[in-house]
């Protein structure tokens, strides 16, 4: 757990630096050579480097989003050099005197080529979950999980722009990162190990505060609940979510946040329900849910597909789902599954 937390902290530090540059340059889209792409690669390298360094005798097996194919071409060399410089700025602080070459950076990126599956140990990484939130100066997260024989046994979420206290609508809005940046009470690290509960501490300067155990809210009625959903609707239907909320009697407006930040908020009781209903053609990746899944379960919540079946991470890089994902405290979860059968029945 210690190396996983350190890996996410270092990667989050890299992402924060790139997002600050992103703001200064007023970038609004993810292009092949944009700072956000540099951050995607850079965060993946930093996490893999940290984990491999903690256990050098074993080759790291990681299921991750990026590969080095484009960077190995002549056209990709300038970007590779920028990624290498960015990574080394973080490595220098963690291991003074150590410098990674561009060739080493390429090889570390490709440690993320594992297919996962039902046997063995595999790390699962989304180096920047919530890319559109990242470029929109909103919420994003660095998400690291561990699979052991197909079961998620560990999860760490680094949420650089998430307040440590109460969260409001404005904290998920475009430009919120600029307002929150530099605040000592902003930045959360959620973590959980199977059977050990779920915890949160400040993302940086963790020695200043003891970890706090978190639990999902003990809410049983829809009228008391607040549901969360993605800011963007391209991978999650806002209309289905709204219909389910009405069926359950939810009266409060949705809290819209990018990334697995929503799993963190659910685990500490700041939100009560997270629903995600993607288009039928969309395939959910395991790195988009693994870390948050174990954190919410260890906080007392349930995370299943729309039929109430617990998520299965043993099938490779993708999840097989019935319609969508529902995460909530147990009493509300049961009602939501029943509502989904009525509002969003199987095709």
Automatic annotation (TrEMBL):
EC number: 3.1.3.7
Protein name: 3'(2'),5'-bisphosphate nucleotidase
Cited PROSITE patterns: IMP_2 (PS00630)
Catalytic activity line of the entry: 3'-phosphoadenylyl sulfate + H2O = adenosine 5'-phosphosulfate + phosphate; adenosine 3',5'-bisphosphate + H2O = AMP + phosphate; adenosine 2',5'-bisphosphate + H2O = AMP + phosphate
Coiled-coil intervals: none
Membership in a protein family: Belongs to the inositol monophosphatase superfamily.
Species whose genome carries this gene: Chlamydomonas reinhardtii
Binding positions for Mg(2+) per the UniProt entry: 65, 126, 128-129, 288
UniProt keyword Hydrolase present: yes
CDD domains: PAP_phosphatase (cd01517)
Cofactor or coenzyme needed: Mg(2+)
Keywords for this protein: Hydrolase, Magnesium, Metal-binding
EC top class named in words: hydrolase
GO molecular function, one term: metal ion binding
Gene Ontology biological process terms in this record: phosphatidylinositol phosphate biosynthetic process; sulfate assimilation
A Pfam cross-reference name: Inositol_P
């Amino acid at each position: 757990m210690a190396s996983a937390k350190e890996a996410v902290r270092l990667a989050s530090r890299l992402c924060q630096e790139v997002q600050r540059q992103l703001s200064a340059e007023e970038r609004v889209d993810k292009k092949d050579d944009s700072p956000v792409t540099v951050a995607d690669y850079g965060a993946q390298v930093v996490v893999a480097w940290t984990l491999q360094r903690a256990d050098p005798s074993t080759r790291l097996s990681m299921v991750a989003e990026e590969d080095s194919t484009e960077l190995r071409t002549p056209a990709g060399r300038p970007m590779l050099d920028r990624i290498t410089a960015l990574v080394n700025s973080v490595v220098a602080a963690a291991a003074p005197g150590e410098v990674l070459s561009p060739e080493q950076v390429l090889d570390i990126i490709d440690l993320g080529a594992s297919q996962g599956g039902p046997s063995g140990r595999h790390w699962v990484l989304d180096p920047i979950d919530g890319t559109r939130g990242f470029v929109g100066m909103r919420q994003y997260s660095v998400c690291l999980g561990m699979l052991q024989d197909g079961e998620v046994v560990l999860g760490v979420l680094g949420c650089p722009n998430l307040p440590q206290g109460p969260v409001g609508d404005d904290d998920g809005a475009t430009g919120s990162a600029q307002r929150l940046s530099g605040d000592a009470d902003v930045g959360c690290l959620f973590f959980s190990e199977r059977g050990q509960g779920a915890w949160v501490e400040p993302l940086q300067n963790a020695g200043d505060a003891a970890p706090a155990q978190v639990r999902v809210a003990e809410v049983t009625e829809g009228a008391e609940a607040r549901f969360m959903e993605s800011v963007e609707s391209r991978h999650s239907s806002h209309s289905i979510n709204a219909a389910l909320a009405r069926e359950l009697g939810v009266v409060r407006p949705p809290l819209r946040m990018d990334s697995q930040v929503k799993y963190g908020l659910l685990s500490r009781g700041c939100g009560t329900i997270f629903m995600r209903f993607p288009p039928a053609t969309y395939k959910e990746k395991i790195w988009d849910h693994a870390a948050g899944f174990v954190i919410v379960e260890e906080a007392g919540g349930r995370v299943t597909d729309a039929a109430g079946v617990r998520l299965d991470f043993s099938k490779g890089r993708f999840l097989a789902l019935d319609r969508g994902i529902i995460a909530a405290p147990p009493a509300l979860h049961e009602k939501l599954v029943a509502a989904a059968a009525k509002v969003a029945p199987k095709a």
